[in-house]
Design a protein that fits this description.
The chain is mainly beta. The protein has one domain. 0% of the residues lie in helices and 41% in strands. Strand 2 and strand 3 form a beta hairpin. The chain is elongated, with a radius of gyration of 12 Å.
Length: 66
Amino acid sequence: MIALSACATTQNKGSQLIAAGTSSGDAFGYSFAISGNTALVSAFLEDTAIGEDAGATYVFILREGK
């Protein structure tokens, strides 16, 4: 599992969480967990340095006003 970080904001209702480097075949968003201001989003078919379809987990932290 690989953890990467990104930043999400609340400037626009209906905003999307987008991870750089994912493609439509990575299954980004297939599963997720939210706790407080942190969201974990899976991309279980993401190709990584470990191997093809090894998967990844993305960490998003909400920062108010940014």
